[in-house]
Design goal:
By secondary structure, the chain is mainly alpha-helical. The chain is built from 15 helices and no strands.
Length: about 300
């Protein structure tokens, strides 16, 4: 990885520089990772976990995810330059050098590991940093540019925060967090492919073999539907394994039905040869709401109606 052949860093005000470093961490992605961590901690505790433990866990998770996202930007800066969606990222605009970005990223990872180990436990620290290693080496550096299965396998990194949350509370892992991991793992492809439909031309320009680039719209929509059905099945399995009650069961069923309905609609549009970008973006937006409400319902379920 050549870190010295890029744009010279721009002259920025201190505020702009801070903003650029924050942008390196992809805050909106971190937000989504944390949405799954807190409810997991409630389920693991079978009640309300310690407020300070939640804060320390979220801080460590934020640092680890931020570092992973920053390394991803260092590695992908050549293709980010080619895509409309990513052309304003800090390393494309020259807000900092790749070396500075990499040092920043590795500092975040080191802080994450040490902070989680000292304030939470060793298991959660190892899991958080392992997710970064997987995201960087398996997804970003190996699969992303080579395989249409890139996001299917690479999505595992985004499912690790539930393992971190569970380990933070119990200092162990069991079947419940593994099934939670599975839920997010299966949720990731339909979520990301729906977005990739909208940015298909971007990925094609950068020669990234995302499914909508290498397969027809109909094939992509069918794959989204298959994964969505598997997702709904995995949420049903989770209810039993984690001993969740009626609040979770009804929420999972309603949300699952809506997700399947949206996926079926996408397949129909694709089969009729109609423009499916709008529907795909609607499905992408809903997928975020889906995950937030699904995990939120676990927390409410534990608080309102304990089942243990």
């Amino acid at each position: 990885m050549d870190l010295h052949t890029d744009l010279k860093p721009s002259v920025l005000t201190p505020f702009e520089r801070v903003k650029a470093y924050i942008a390196l961490t992809k805050p909106r992605i971190i937000e989504l990772l944390l949405i799954t961590t807190v409810p997991t901690m409630f389920v693991a505790k079978e009640g309300v976990p310690s407020f300070t433990l939640v804060l320390w866990t979220l801080l460590g998770g934020t640092l680890a995810a931020g570092g992973a996202n920053a390394i991803n930007m260092v590695v992908d800066r050549d293709i980010d330059r080619l895509m409309e969606r990513t052309k304003n990222r800090p390393l494309v605009t020259g807000a900092m050098t790749p070396t500075a970005a990499l040092v920043f990223a590795l500092t975040l990872e080191t802080l994450a590991f040490v902070q989680l180990w000292l304030t939470v436990n060793f298991l959660s620290a190892v899991l958080a940093v392992s997710a970064t290693a997987f995201y960087v080496f398996i997804y970003t550096m190996w699969l992303k540019r080579r395989s249409k299965q890139n996001i299917v396998i690479g999505g595992a990194a985004g499912a690790v925060p539930v393992l971190v949350g569970w380990a933070a509370v119990t200092n162990s892992l069991s079947w419940a967090p593994v099934i939670m991991f599975l839920v997010i793992f299966i949720w990731t492809p339909p979520h990301f492919w729906a977005l990739a439909v909208r940015y298909r031309d971007d990925y094609a320009a950068a020669d990234i073999p995302m499914l909508p680039v290498v397969a027809s719209m109909e094939r992509t929509a069918v794959e989204i539907l298959i994964y969505t059905i598997a997702l709904v099945a995995s949420t049903a399995l989770l209810g039993g394994v984690a001993h969740l009650g009626l609040i979770y069961a009804i929420t999972a069923l309603v949300l699952g039905a809506l997700f399947i309905f949206g996926s079926v609609k996408l397949v129909q549009l694709a089969r009729e040869g109609k423009a499916a970008e709008k529907e795909a973006m609607r499905l992408f937006s809903f997928s975020i709401t889906y995950l937030s409400l699904l995990f939120g319902s676990m927390m409410v379920d534990v608080l309102v109606a304990p089942h243990h």
